[in-house]
Specification:
Chain lengths: 276, 455
Amino acid sequence: MVATAMQTGVAQTTAIEISHMKVYYGEKLAVDDVSLPILKNKITAFIGPSGCGKSTVLRGLNRMNDLIPGARVEGEILYHGRNLYAPNVDPVEVRRRIGMVFQKPNPFPKSIYDNIAYGPRLLGVKSKAMLDEIVEMSLKQAAIWDEVKNDFRTKSGLALSGGQQQRMCIARTIAVEPDVILMDEPCSALDPIATQKIEELMRELVANFTIVIVTHNMQQATRVSDYTAFYSIRKQETEVGKENRWGVLAEYAPTQQLFERPAKQETADYISGRFG
Amino acid sequence: MSATALDQSALRQEDSFIRGLRNRHRFGAIWKRFFQGATIFGLIALILLTFNVLNRVFGYVAIVNRIEPSSLSDRPLEELSAEELGVILIESAGASFNPRIGLANLIPGGLGTQNSNYIANRDNPIGELIPNVPAEYAAIPLGEITSEQATTILSTIATKEDLLDLVKLYVVGEKVGDAWSLTESLFNRAAIDEYAAANPNAKIEFRNWLSLTFLSNRMSDNPLVSGIRIALLGTVWVLVFTILVAFPLGVGTAIYLQEYSTGDTWLERVIETNIRNLAGVPSIIYGLLGLAIFVRTLEPITQGRTVISAALTMSLLILPIIIINAQEALRAVPPSLREASFGLGATKWQTVWRSVLPAALPGILTGTILGMSRAIGETAPLVIIGAATFIATNPDGPLARFTVIPIQIYNWTKDARPGYGEVSAAAIVLLLIVLLTFNAVAIYLRQRFRRALQG
Ligand SMILES: Nc1ncnc2c1ncn2[C@@H]1O[C@H](COP(=O)(O)OP(=O)(O)OP(=O)(O)O)[C@@H](O)[C@H]1O
Ligand SMILES: [Mg+2]
């Protein structure tokens, strides 16, 4: 499964190139000097101990951090050769191209139809026929169509089960036709069966999308991802009893390689459960 | 440690544990009693209040006439035409009817009580007092007009409604001799019989003061024919314009403060803190403000003491309530909803308009209900900005002169003559009904939005 292009020698296209990314919350450094490529039509997994900055980096990729007062990103995040943080880039457009699925399913308190149509409507799509088509396509792509096809126009998104809600949220993200889908622990609130469905879905979606997923579940990372980035925490004692902690990218490699032959001891410790 | 000592200590612990538990339960029970007591106290107060008002809305009334209407006409007075009523008035001119005082009664916005209205306006040309007086009489001061002239003017400008009032007031001289509450009517018949024996001419009948004629009549000096129509319309007009002004402004301010303002600048912080203080400012201060700004400064636009001036003043009064509640409702919208919207590429405005506002609407409406209830019952600011105490014509728009139900209640309540307490009780019940109606509409809307949200 992880017979990646790198190993087979075929040239890879990069969807997003993260280069020397630093994120601050106010004065506090949260993530230091992260550089890695997010390869096109691949699933990249972010793993690492709690608080190491996985979500922070992920949210930095579609400028969701802009919504947090005091959050600041340094370095370059290149998307189609343009720095996402360049002054002339509109975060609204970035978020449409680089969509996001959140840890907790967050449907709008509207019908399933209106949930999916929310994004296209933002872009000004008004034609009913077109919206109908987008909604059906998205629900099908997110593998939830069969479960809701009878009542998706009237049923509230909140009336779905957690796993269905999460797939609906994925469908909602797909509906605006992004390039990249960011997922922050999308299965952490779901049972194993719902989790498996989402994982299968991700494998299907990766043909058309580039996916980045944050997960705490090693098996999940090995099952679904092509590449894995392991983040870890650096500490520095400032004065007695006080210390600064920030996250760094410890290792990035094809998933199989990272889990079978980690280059660093701390990676090996983490994936074998001796750390974090 | 010996075995017995161990047993004893275990026993002691057990014992104190049970004792502690019993204490905790007892403590809880005491508080529960207190909460129940507080609820019952409120309930009793509410029942007493309602009873006290309703008690005066129904009951026996003794009607005393100076002249029996049957001696004036074969038909009931209400069925007579304007001409016939005019003839009755003219025939009794001099005896019981002074046409000049009758004329004074038609002055819009005057004081209402017949003689004081005449005295107050004696020196003013009647053309200035009554707009539609024929031109040839317009310049004559009210006090210098002759009886004949007054009769002619009356017959040209008085409506049938005016004439009927005048006939009842001056010719028939109908008035309430005495009125009894519902409990008195049921349990104290002796007092009523005693009154009937002492006044053989009095007609005693059971009366529902909150009748359809009470709703449809305008106010009058005679509580038997006095009605609430004009004040009711005034209340509705003022309320509608108050909502039209205060709702968008209040919600707009709340959205700005909650969603856009970062609270960083000095000005934003001052505004934020002061809105809370404004909610506590006595309403009479708002009346003074309204008088200075809307009635005086903006007179060219508002035309003075009009519905729109009142509505703007009331809007100022309830704005803080609406803003604070709307802010609270916006704050309660889960951040995940905003994230979902932004994550799909929504702009700030799209997020607010399509996600945040619909989710906050039920809470916003709750605040609006509170504000409206306040506006319906508020009297002091309207007294200050000069709601009229006596108006003969329906308010018909934002620029009309007006009065409102609470002011009418106040005027009737302070009048000690029999019958006035009863009409004011009827007006209070009506005010409560208006309040409940407006609230019911808002609550219905709120439930609908809430259900729409939950799907
Ligand atoms: N909104 C915020 N304001 C200030 N500090 C924050 C904020 N969000 C995260 N941080 C800090 O940034 C660091 C990284 O947090 P982040 O949420 O990215 O970690 P994570 O790797 O996603 O952890 P987890 O696995 O628990 O989700 C933490 O030290 C956290 O305290
Ligand atoms: Mg996280």
